[in-house]
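Task 17 of the worksheet. Students: predict the tertiary structure of the chain below and write it out as C-alpha cells. Keep your answer in the requested format; marks are given for formatting as well as content.
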Amino acid sequence: MNTQYILYLIYACIFIIYSFVLYRIIFFKKFHNYNYKRRIKKKHFIGDRIVKLKNNPINERFKLSGLNLNLYSYELIRTIIFALLIVLMMFYGVGSIAFVMLLVLYVLTLPTKNIGKFKAPLMYMLDALQYLHYNNVNKEIFNLASSSLIYIDANKKEPLSIHSFFEMLMKSASFTESYLASLLRRCIEGEADKGVDEFYLNIKNKNARDFAKEIVKFDDVDPESLVGPIQVLMHSIREDRVEFKNKIAKITSFVISVPVVFTMMLIFLDFIYTVNVSEMFNNYTNFNLGG
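Model answer:
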C-alpha cells in the first residue's frame, strides 16, 4: 500500500464523516423526538453540537457583522464546501500539499471563539466585518442626517409632520429602512423612548441611537431646533470616518503580508510531511514486504 492509497483512505473517511454531519444538519427537524433528545442527554457529540448551533452566542456576532447568516447556516455551508473539496481531491488524486491545505483550512474555519488559547480566525473575520458594517451604518446615518438638514431648510415656511419626515428618511435609507419604520410606529403609539432603544439594539451603533433620539422629537419641538444637534452628530461621524480610514490603511498593509507567510507555512508543512510521514509509510510497506 503506497502513500497515495493511504491518502485516498483518509479522504474517504473524512468524506463519510462530513456526509453524516451534513445529513444530520439537513434533516435536523426529523430528529426532534424523545429518543433523539435522550441521545443528546447522553452527550452524543454530533447531536449535541447541532442543537447548540442555533443558541450559540456567535449568532449575535453574525448579526452585528451585517451578514444575513447565522451559525447554523454557516456550518451547513461549510460542511457542503468541505464535502465537495474532499470529493474533488479523491477524484483528481491530488498530492500531500493539498491535503495539508485542507486541514489548515478546516482549522481556520472552525465556528468557535477560541482554538486552544488563541482567538479563532473566524472571530477575527467577524471583528473585521462588524467594524466595516459599523462604519457603513455610520455612513448611512451621516447621509440621513444631511438629508434631514436639507429637508428642514427647504420646508421652513411649510407645516411639517413626523410622518412626512420619516417617509423622506426611509426613501434615502437602505439598511436602516425597516428600523426607521419601526421607530415611526413607536412614535405614533407614544412609545418613542422604547422605539429608540429598539433602534439601537437592532443596529448597535451609538451615532444611530443619538440620531434617533433627535428625530423622534420632530413633532414636539420646532424642527429648526434640531439642526444644531444634528450638525454635532455629523461632526462626530466625520471623526469616526477618519479613524476608520486610518485603521483600514494599517489592516491593508498587514493583509498584504499574510499570503506570503501562509505560503511559506504550507511549504514547510509539506516538507515535513514528505520527509517524515512518507518515509514512515514507505518503511512500513518495506517491512511488510520483507516479512
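Marker's comment: Strands lie at 114-115, 118-119. The chain has two domains: 1-111, 130-243.
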